[in-house]
Design brief:
alpha/beta, 4-stranded antiparallel β-sheet, single chain, 7 helices, binds adenosine-5'-diphosphate, 31% helix, 244 residues, Rossmann fold
C-alpha cells in the first residue's frame, strides 16, 4: 500500500525578481490509511505542499516519493501512475463549464488510463453515488450549487479509485450541513482504507474529528500531532496542539 514520503522538500517561486520559498525543507511521511489535516494561515504553504504530494508541481530541492518512486519525474505532466494513485481536488474549481458532469468525469477516467467506455461509465456512476450526486450526469457545472460542485469535484477525484485523496480546501465556502456531509463521506472512504490529506480552515471540524494535524508556518512544519486540535502558540490561532 502506497506510502508518501517527503524528504527535505523545498519549492521556490519568483515574485518581482525575488525568489522565495513557498515550502522549505519539508520532511513528512504519510502512511496508507491515515487521515491528515494540513492547517496554517493563508500563505503558509498548504496548497504548495498538497500540489507537491499530488505531483502537480515539482520540488526544486528534495524529493516526494510514492512507494519509493518520485511522484514528479517530469515537469508539468502528472503521470498516469500518479493520476491513478492520487485523487486531487484543487482549491480553485476545475470543472470544465462547457462539458457535462459526465464528460468532466470521463476525461478524468481517461487521464487515469481507463479507455473502455463501459468501465469508465461504471466508475463515473459509482463515484457520483459515493458523494450522493447520482442523476446530475447530463447537467453542466454552472447549473450546480457550490456544495454540489465540490461534491462533483470529489467524485472526479474518486473516478480512478485512488488509494490516496489530496483535497485542497474542499470545505471552503460550504455551509455547516455540507461540510458535515463531506466529512462523513471522507471518513467512510478513510475507514475503507483510503488515505486522506486535506488542507482546511474549518477549525471546528478539525477539533471534532481529532485526526493527525500538520501545521505549517511560513512554509515549514511547525507542528505534527496525532489527534490534534486548534490551539494558540506564539499568538497564532492556527497552531494545532493535543491539549484538551
Ligand atoms: P496557502 O495554501 O497556505 O495559502 P500557498 O501554498 O498557496 O499557501 O502559498 C505559499 C506562498 O507561495 C504564498 O506566499 C504564495 O503567494 C506563494 N505562491 C503560491 N503559488 C505561487 C505561484 N504559482 N507563483 C508565485 N507564488 C506562489
Amino acid at each position: 500500500m502506497p506510502t508518501i514520503e517527503l524528504k527535505k522538500v523545498t519549492k521556490r517561486y519568483r515574485f518581482e525578481r525575488r525568489q522565495y520559498e513557498a515550502v522549505s525543507q519539508i520532511d513528512l511521511t504519510i502512511r496508507q490509511g491515515e487521515f491528515l489535516f494540513v492547517v496554517g494561515s493563508s500563505g503558509a504553504g498548504k496548497s504548495t505542499l498538497l500540489k507537491l504530494i499530488a505531483g502537480q508541481v515539482r520540488a526544486d530541492a528534495g524529493v516526494v516519493l510514492l512507494d519509493g518512486s518520485d511522484v514528479a519525474p517530469l515537469p508539468l505532466i502528472p503521470s498516469v501512475r500518479i493520476r491513478r494513485a492520487v485523487g486531487y481536488v484543487a482549491q480553485e474549481p476545475r470543472l470544465i463549464h462547457r462539458r457535462t458532469i459526465y464528460d468532466n468525469l470521463y476525461m478524468a477516467a481517461q487521464a487515469g488510463g481507463l479507455n473502455r467506455e463501459k468501465d469508465a461509465m461504471e466508475r463515473i456512476y459509482k463515484a457520483l453515488s459515493i458523494v450522493g450526486m447520482r442523476g446530475v450526469e447530463r447537467q453542466f457545472p454552472g447549473e450546480l450549487s457550490i456544495g454540489q460542485s465540490r461534491r462533483v469535484e470529489l467524485a472526479r477525484a474518486l473516478v480512478n479509485s485512488p488509494p490516496i485523496l489530496v483535497l485542497d480546501e474542499l470545505t471552503a465556502n460550504l455551509d455547516e450541513d455540507n461540510i458535515w456531509d463531506m466529512l462523513h463521506v471522507l471518513s467512510e472512504l478513510n475507514r475503507m482504507g483510503t488515505t486522506v490529506v486535506m488542507a482546511t480552515h474549518a477549525s471546528m471540524f478539525v477539533n471534532i474529528m481529532r485526526r493527525r494535524v500538520v501545521t505549517l508556518v511560513d512554509g515549514r512544519i511547525a507542528g505534527d500531532v496525532a489527534g490534534g486540535r486548534y490551539g494558540e502558540i506564539r499568538g497564532r490561532k492556527v497552531f494545532c496542539t493535543t491539549e484538551k
